[in-house]
Amino acid sequence: MRLPCEGVMIILCSWQVFQMIPASGFSSQGVSVATVPRRKHMSRSATIESTPTNTEHHVGDRLSLPPRKLLIHWRGEDVEGYSFAFRHPELLGALAAVTNNPLLESHEDSSPIHFCNALNYNGESELPEVKLKAFNSAMQWVTHHGKAGLDGGGPWMISRNDIAVAASRCALIHTIYEVVAEGQSYSDLAVHAMENGGFEDMMTGGENQEDTWAVRVRHYGGEADSKKERRSGTRTRSCTMEKEALLALKPMLLKFGGGVDLKDPDCKINVFDGLDGTGSANKVLARKMGTGLPKLFSIAPATRICVTTTPLEPIAACSLCNIAGVSTDQTILDPYSGSCAILLAAAMMAPSCQTVGVDVAHDGLINRDHILQDFEFRGLARPKAIFRGDSIDPMVRDRARAAIGEEPFDHIITDPPYGIREKMDANAPSPLEDLFTALEHDRDRGRRLLKVGGRLVCFVPCNPTVDIQKVLPSQAKTERAGMKFLQSQEQPLNSGLSRWLVSYECTK
Fold this sequence. Notes:
Number of domains: 2
Organism: Seminavis robusta
Domain Ribosomal RNA large subunit methyltransferase K/L-like methyltransferase: 302-354
GO molecular function, one term: nucleic acid binding
Helix content: 25-40%
Region (Disordered): 42-61
Order of helices and strands: HEHEHEHEHEHHEEHEHEHEHEHHEHEE
Protein name: tRNA methyltransferase 11 homolog (Saccharomyces cerevisiae)
């Protein structure tokens, strides 16, 4: 979230301080910033090794993420806790897709990546537990468990470019930063940053010496400097603190070759004061690595030409795709596609993926011409096929498979219309059970629907008082379908209903 006064008070303050610094090497230039930061803008901290921009990794190329060297600011939502459980699995799934790294599984318990809160509200005002949890977890450190790689020699490599690209496809990430230096004072930050080379690419003679830059200061804590208790959700913005920080950073900033751009700099430098978990080093100097999925709400239901009664919201659609691990050139089937929110999300994060949507509703309820227009209007690749049909019918599934060249799909990602048939017949199988039956049937007749290693990811509704395992297909049915349960994440809808994001892997 951008601060409402960021473009007024802080920028004016920063410019006044920059006027105090000798003008050598400083100028005001306007430069646009790409959606995913160019790799040359990534810092060269000695603690994180850089890798090529492609995602082909060898077991010998590795990186142990140093403790507290990455910082994530998560995107807030109107309802606390609504998609809270999807944050970590979404990023882990995106990282796994970007790096093609089997160690970075979506399941957090088995992942080498660890998250811990960077905020700790300790003010006098009592907050409801859900709001306190939402605030304290709004920013988190990203660290590494240090688990061994496939050959037992250490964790696999995660490059800066991998992290920036993975973040750029996550709906629940606002901004991700690389921590360059930590210290007890602003002067410490400048000294440590120059020692570890965290900004050497920005300095005269460096790779990015002509890039523009700007500095912002953010203060966190239980109380404001005035000793007056402040609201927990706001950040103290002090012109005095920003002047102090800029003057202390002057020895480093004077080495920069590029000019100041307070509106749209190439390199955004942040000073964080009062973050939790920094020990005695209560000040942090960081540079922005990337942002979350751009133009996420361009696929919001209200913006679409095809309008349905119960469309899937963009955050949920993107979370499904990321947890599935959708990546370049893969194939995706949504057997209950509706207005194709999931296929829109997949096309945004992996433009070259091939998708197929099937839904039993007629064009009077779901206008398929309008769906295609929704893809074209946003400049997204159209699905290989969208047609009417019941995914229970083998002929319909054969038609879906034919649309991608008679091959099985890499992923099945869907939000089934639960509740309709159950109301008519309490003994009717659930849509997920129907899918398992279809997987078993198609495999046995030699026309596999899902590749071995492929993922099936979908939503399943459940009363909060009921064990989700009792709602899912039985273990026997799961095994017959050749599937293995991976994980489930709860998303509360209201006091009496949740939906669970569940994922399976095809094993045979």
